[in-house]
């Protein structure tokens, strides 16, 4: 799919069930990973009659113009990644106009889908916010710092300092487990695969961090929410040991923020002892089942 924003070729993957399609789930992956990591979850959905679609975000996976562009967004604003996501929605809905449509975002993808919902909530029938970064009051300062570094260095520069400031707090909690990415998962095999993959764990360019921090600021800014679909079913899910949510109180603030904006059909669920990548933990099956049951109860029954 060529992005309507700038023509960038975005790599898209789709999985259909063998029989009747009951619903569609569009997935938005996280930072410094790629779409193929969601194949197991997509296979589960297909076996339950749900079609799923995912693309590599710009600057990720196969959605790059060259390898040096991993973590580079070809954008200054944080908007293109959101518009790409909406463009894919419209493309799929054009082919399947009558099917209920659920948007799922993990981690950075959870920022993308909330920024999307800020403008386009009438185009979806359900929203799943997974492993969401909680509000960080230092995000505006971080954005200004990144912009300053860009002027001194370049937008393609990969700053170990910014990487350290962004993630050292996450890493510190699991420092004795042998990998700086142990915070992602209690499933050590998942962490090993992540560490070994060249398409995972790369340091963002300054341009990438600028887009990331812009998204973090936008989703927690009360200005600009249209809230046209106030009854949109929304669920926040995360692992209780996910440092990205900071703590349970901050996690609660993230979903009550949307309640305060005006959304009326909100739920949340913390999965005990799981970390950031709840779809790839050893106990991922219970997460899959929870998501499927939520789709049935909150989306399919309402749609039928």
Average pLDDT level: 97
Oligomeric state of the chains in view? single chain
- Output the helix-strand order: EEHEHEHEHHHHEHEH
Characterize the main sheet: 7 strands, mixed
Determine the CATH superfamily: Alpha/Beta hydrolase fold, catalytic domain
Low-confidence stretches: none
Number of helices: 9
Examine the coordinates and then state which fold CATH places here, giving the name of the CATH topology. Answer: Rossmann fold
Bulk shape: globular
- The tally of strands reads 7
Helix proportion: 40-55%
Our measurement of the CA-to-CA distance between the termini, rounded to an integer number of angstroms, reads 31 Å
β-strand amount: 5-15%
CATH architecture: 3-Layer(aba) Sandwich
Question: What Rg is obtained from the alpha carbons, in whole angstroms?
Answer: 18 Å
Q: Which structural category fits the helices and strands?
A: alpha/beta
Question: Strand order of the main beta sheet, please?
Answer: 1-3-2-4-5-6-7
Would you state the CATH class?
Alpha Beta
Number of domains: 1
Protein name: Alpha/beta fold hydrolase
Domain Serine aminopeptidase S33: 21-283
Organism: Amedibacillus dolichus
InterPro entries: AB_hydrolase_fold, Hydrolase_4, MAG_DAG_Lipase
Keywords:
seven-stranded mixed beta sheet, Alpha/beta fold hydrolase, 304 residues, AB_hydrolase_fold, Rossmann fold, hydrolase, alpha/beta, hydrolase activity, MAG_DAG_Lipase, 40% helix
Structural commentary:
This is Alpha/beta fold hydrolase. Keywords: Hydrolase. Residues 21-283 form the Serine aminopeptidase S33 domain. The chain is of the alpha/beta class and 304 residues long. It has a single domain (12-303), classed as 3-Layer(aba) Sandwich (Rossmann fold). Helix content is 40%, strand content 13%. It has a seven-stranded mixed sheet with strand order 1-3-2-4-5-6-7, with helices on both faces. It is globular. The chain starts with 11 loop residues before the first strand and ends with a helix. The model has no long low-confidence stretch (mean pLDDT 97).
